[in-house]
Automatic annotation (TrEMBL):
<keyword id="KW-0288">FMN</keyword>
<comment type="function">
    <text>Flavin prenyltransferase that catalyzes the synthesis of the prenylated FMN cofactor (prenyl-FMN) for 4-hydroxy-3-polyprenylbenzoic acid decarboxylase UbiD. The prenyltransferase is metal-independent and links a dimethylallyl moiety from dimethylallyl monophosphate (DMAP) to the flavin N5 and C6 atoms of FMN.</text>
</comment>
<comment type="similarity">
    <text>Belongs to the UbiX/PAD1 family.</text>
</comment>
<dbReference type="Pfam" id="PF02441">
    <property type="entry name" value="Flavoprotein"/>
</dbReference>
<dbReference type="InterPro" id="IPR004507">
    <property type="entry name" value="UbiX-like"/>
</dbReference>
<feature type="binding site">
    <location>
        <position position="137"/>
    </location>
    <ligand>
        <name>FMN</name>
    </ligand>
</feature>
<feature type="binding site">
    <location>
        <position position="183"/>
    </location>
    <ligand>
        <name>dimethylallyl phosphate</name>
    </ligand>
</feature>
<feature type="binding site">
    <location>
        <begin position="15"/>
        <end position="17"/>
    </location>
    <ligand>
        <name>FMN</name>
    </ligand>
</feature>
<feature type="domain" description="Flavoprotein">
    <location>
        <begin position="10"/>
        <end position="188"/>
    </location>
</feature>
<keyword id="KW-0285">Flavoprotein</keyword>
<feature type="binding site">
    <location>
        <position position="41"/>
    </location>
    <ligand>
        <name>FMN</name>
    </ligand>
</feature>
<feature type="binding site">
    <location>
        <position position="167"/>
    </location>
    <ligand>
        <name>dimethylallyl phosphate</name>
    </ligand>
</feature>
<dbReference type="InterPro" id="IPR036551">
    <property type="entry name" value="Flavin_trans-like"/>
</dbReference>
<keyword id="KW-0637">Prenyltransferase</keyword>
<protein>
    <recommendedName>
        <fullName>Flavin prenyltransferase UbiX</fullName>
        <ecNumber>2.5.1.129</ecNumber>
    </recommendedName>
</protein>
<keyword id="KW-0808">Transferase</keyword>
<feature type="binding site">
    <location>
        <begin position="102"/>
        <end position="105"/>
    </location>
    <ligand>
        <name>FMN</name>
    </ligand>
</feature>
Length: 202
């Protein structure tokens, strides 16, 4: 018997730097009792090892270590599992976010390639006119990157670059991470208290 949930979101984590953004966002969604469909690219696992210092030999153990304590419902999908429910437009899904989004994944989405489950699900979001948030983490940007961002923006995606703000006077790395994740949750329409908003308390 499935647990009750507040809504359904798909989260993709690619090999761009900033895996902690995706991890923190999934944790927040699960903490708030959302159902989450999670897709990790092979490069994402490499970043988990290099940036988060995780032993990725046992991937199930890593997933449990990162997300096992939360109440929400988590479903992980292989990158080439085209039979996953999220690959179909008939599956009800409140939205999708790819955080961080590599330039390779952005290119695949911009061209409609659907070369894997991540790109296919993003294509479903666009054709069904559902929320698709892309969080690129690359610098500097070349003309192809910029043109691909413009292309996906024109067909309904929102591009939310991984640019932390400083007006909330961050005191730690966590504050910077939570600011960006909070902005991503805002774009999905999910309430949170991850950072102090401009003007709060005045």
């Amino acid at each position: 018997m499935s647990r009750e949930h507040k809504g359904i979101y798909t989260v993709g984590i690619t090999g761009a730097s900033g895996a902690i953004y995706g991890v923190r966002l999934v944790q927040e969604l699960l903490k708030q009792s959302y159902k989450v469909h999670l897709i990790l690219t092979e490069a994402a696992w490499r970043v988990f090892k290099e940036e988060l210092l995780l032993d990725t030999e046992n991937r199930d153990a890593v997933i449990d270590q990162l997300f096992g304590e939360y109440e929400g419902e988590l479903h992980t999908h292989h990158l080439h599992d085209y039979g996953a429910p999220i690959a179909s437009g008939s599956y009800q899904n409140n939205g999708m976010i790819i955080i961080p989004c590599s330039m390779g994944t952005l290119s695949g989405i911009a061209t409609g390639a659907s070369g894997n489950l991540l790109e296919r699900t993003a294509d479903v979001m666009l054709k069904e006119e559902r929320k698709l948030i892309l969080v690129p983490r690359e610098t500097p940007l070349n003309q192809l990157h910029l043109e691909n961002m413009l292309r996906v923006s024109k067909v309904g995606a929102k591009v939310l670059p991984a640019m932390p703000g400083f007006y909330h006077l961050p005191q730690s790395m966590d504050d910077l991470i939570n600011f960006l994740v909070g902005k991503a949750l805002d774009s999905l329409g999910v309430d949170h208290t991850l950072f102090t908003r401009w003007g709060e308390g005045q």
